[in-house]
Design brief:
- This protein is of the alpha/beta class.
- Helices cover 34% and strands 13% of the residues.
- It has a 4-stranded mixed sheet with strand order 1-4-2-3. Strands 27-28-32-31 form a 4-stranded mixed sheet, with helices on one face. Strands 5-6 form a two-stranded antiparallel ribbon.
- The protein is elongated and about 185 Å long.
Length: 733
């Protein structure tokens, strides 16, 4: 056209054809190698026109008079347009390699006007050309339809192939090539947009596992809403609260529990689990799933579902699901007492909570009264794991109950046990803080105690542990209950005695049982053991008046005084009979409050053990001093000072004194109200019949050291020289 030829050199105006070329070297593998350094336009020989593209351009641009620069005009305009088309053809013809992004013009970096026009035209051509590769596909796409993933990795792009349309391979998403992609207008896809893109897609669980693993290390907030396929076919809208099953979890049997349990294949890799855990999913061991609130709610409602005959309730499937969990959790089931609410089939064709069913053929079934508790359906028991049945509360031995207060222990006699415990505390003690408590249920249902005791012996240390309140140690519930019920040959253990102890011989029958069991039951060994409990003290008081029983002399000497102390402040009916000698009892008796009155007492005497007043009050008996009103009726043979008696020095030494004071009147015989007595105290003068025994008793009573009466009597009975030597020895000691 004349308008295109006017600006051509004279020698070229006659030419009717022209050619242009973009040249780019390739390496040995056929990959493009952008030219390094500064490029210029060849028209067709090198000119001074700079070219910012890393390729060689050869085109018949018209030159100006200096023959170094391209002259503007229609020919130049036409060549620029054709050059852009040819550049797009070049890029399309080259192998799809990320290095091609280096050929994309950088906006704003042109070296001259012609360079700027070329870059702009080339960029426009590239934007509309189908030349960018699509990840995982053989076809290419235009920049307008392409997408590049932020923070792209090969794994992420591979996982999202086919999900994000036009997604470029990971190598095309490097941040260093960001300006080229931005210049082309390629859409950038962030991970938050990826999460939205994968919502609702239908992919196998293994695909989700690859996606999760590929997102390892991604920003938590961007991927927090990742969907998670669940084992029952549902999809969770986010990982938070989803359970990630361990390999041993019986996922295929847990559908009745309604758990948000991830599909095992979706979390089959450590990386996938790690990502989901970071987003709030929880590891799901069998023990952890058993403790899940959803499982507890389903178990708690299982009996209601059976009784209400809900259409969607399958109690067999639910029971099998929970038992499968319990089997997988072994030995980590732990203490989950609410599992005892699980509905299980019973032998009568109905349903009952697991904790109210006995395993058929178990020792507990033999120990309890027939029909006291339900029995698990034998067929169901046969196909179920016995350990799992025990874990959910089915009974083959006695079950433990735990609480932090006696009111929480739903067992027989819990309130009475608590009262017995509190009775051991000081009367003015504040309400105690109870430690963790353990009790045993169903004791009141036992009919075969030999079998039951064998089972209870293995109940564990917690069941038999004492309770310590405010520093006072008292028996725990199990020991208290057994001690207060006829479980040993029809007798209460606290109404028998330990065969190893002799102090209670004659009062209590020996307990007959295995020594290890006796060590647990702790039948009393001594009087103190009996007196530790108010009921035990009252029982002992009655036994002392039982003619069929005997008492050791050393026990009788103090037992009534100890009873008076133990029952102080307790309203107790006095016994009809009291013990006056180891083998003798009496209906009418007197409590001796002064030893010199004994010869004048006509009734049997109850040993007071040094506490005549409390003993008389306990037994509702008179004191001897209340019945005997006597005075000395004989005349003394002589009256002398205590210090002048033979043996006085030794007696004083045995009393730890320098000498004796007061006087003593010697009678032969001594009488009170006309009846012979050995000694009689007086305010100023003591009266004796002259015997060493009387002297010893009178002096011991005067000095308030009754326990030394025998030693003082011996002092007055020694020969003179022996007395002197003994006195010297006593002083020396």
């Amino acid at each position: 056209a004349p308008d295109l030829l006017a600006d051509r050199p004279v020698e070229e105006r006659e030419r009717r054809a022209w050619t242009l070329a973009w040249a780019l070297p390739l390496d040995a593998d056929g990959r493009p190698c952008p030219l390094p350094g500064r490029q210029v336009v060849h028209a067709p020989t090198p000119s001074d026109e700079p070219l910012s593209l890393p390729v060689r351009l050869l085109a018949p641009f018209p030159l100006g008079p200096d023959r170094r620069h391209v002259a503007p005009g229609p020919a130049t305009d036409a060549l620029v347009a054709e050059a852009a088309v040819a550049f797009a053809d070049l890029v399309t013809a080259l192998p799809a390699d990320p290095v091609l992004l280096a050929l994309v013009p950088r906006v704003g970096l042109a070296g001259a006007e012609l360079d700027a026009r070329l870059c702009s035209a080339v960029l426009d051509a590239l934007r509309s050309t189908v030349w960018l590769p699509v990840a995982g596909e053989e076809e290419r796409t235009s920049p307008a339809r392409a997408a590049v993933l932020e923070d792209a990795t090969d794994e992420r792009v591979a996982a999202l192939t086919g999900v994000v349309p036009g997604l470029l391979p990971a190598a095309w998403s490097r941040r260093s090539d960001g300006p080229a992609l931005a210049a082309l207008g390629v859409r950038r896809v962030g991970l938050a947009e990826v999460v939205e893109a994968v919502r609702g897609v239908d992919r196998p669980a293994s695909w989700w596992a690859a996606l999760y693993a590929a997102l390892d290390g991604a920003d938590r907030e961007e991927i927090a809403a990742l969907p998670v396929p669940l084992a029952d076919g549902r999809v969770a809208h986010g990982p938070a609260g989803v359970l990630l099953p361990d390999p041993g979890l019986p996922v295929d049997r847990l559908a009745p529990l309604g758990l948000r349990l991830a599909d095992p294949e979706a979390v089959a890799t450590p990386a996938a689990r790690r990502v989901l855990e970071r987003l709030g999913a929880q590891p799901a061991t069998a023990a952890a799933v058993l403790g899940d609130p959803t499982v507890r709610a389903v178990v708690d409602a299982s009996m209601d579902a059976v009784e209400d005959r809900l259409d969607d309730a399958d109690p067999h499937a639910l029971a099998e699901a929970v038992l499968a969990l319990a089997t997988a959790a072994r030995p980590g089931v732990g203490e989950l007492p609410w599992l005892a609410e699980l509905a299980l089939p019973d032998a009568e064709g109905g349903w009952a909570p697991a904790g109210e069913l006995v395993l058929p053929g178990s020792p507990l079934a033999a120990a309890l009264a027939e029909g006291a508790l339900g029995t698990l359906d034998p067929g169901f028991a046969l196909v179920s794991d016995p350990d799992a049945l025990r874990a959910v509360g089915v009974l083959d031995t006695f079950s433990l109950v735990r609480g932090t207060d006696p009111d929480e222990l739903d067992v027989d006699g819990a309130a009475e046990w608590a009262d017995a415990v509190l009775d051991r505390l000081p009367p003015d003690a504040p309400p105690p803080e109870w430690p963790p408590l353990t009790a045993v249920r169903d004791l009141e249902l036992v009919t075969d105690w030999p079998t039951a005791l064998r089972l209870l012996a293995g109940a564990g240390a917690d069941a038999w542990a004492d309770v310590v309140l405010d520093g006072v140690r008292v028996p725990g519930y199990l020991r208290w209950w057994l001690s207060t019920h006829p479980v040993l040959g029809g007798e209460r253990p606290d109404r028998l005695r330990d065969p190893a102890g002799a102090e209670l011989e004659g009062l209590y029958e020996p307990a007959e049982a295995d020594p290890e069991l006796l060590a647990l039951l702790r039948p009393p060994v001594t009087v103190d053991h009996v007196l530790a409990d108010v009921d035990g003290a009252v029982d002992l008081l009655g036994r002392l008046g039982d003619l069929r029983r005997t008492v050791r002399p050393d026990v009788l000497r103090t037992v009534y005084a100890r009873l008076a102390t133990a029952l102080d402040g307790v309203d107790v009916d006095p016994p009809e009979r009291v013990r006056v000698t180891p083998e003798r009892i009496a209906r009418d008796a007197v409590v001796l409050d002064a030893p010199y009155l004994l010869p004048l007492v006509d009734l049997p005497v109850v040993p007071a053990g040094g506490a005549p007043g409390p003993v008389a009050d306990l037994l509702d008996l008179p004191l001897a001093g209340e019945l005997v009103r006597a005075s000395v009726t004989s005349r003394p043979v002589r009256t002398v000072a205590w210090s002048e008696l033979p043996g006085a020095a030794l007696a004083a030494a045995r009393l730890g004194r320098d000498g004796l004071s007061g006087e003593v009147a010697v009678h032969d015989p001594l009488t009170a109200d006309g009846r012979p007595v050995a000694w009689w105290p007086g305010e100023a003068v003591d009266h004796v019949d002259g015997t060493p025994a009387a002297l010893g008793r009178a002096l011991a009573w005067r000095e308030g050291v009754w326990s030394q009466r025998q030693a003082l009597a011996e002092a007055f009975a020694l020969p003179d020289r022996a007395r002197d030597l003994a006195a010297e020895d006593a002083v020396g000691d």
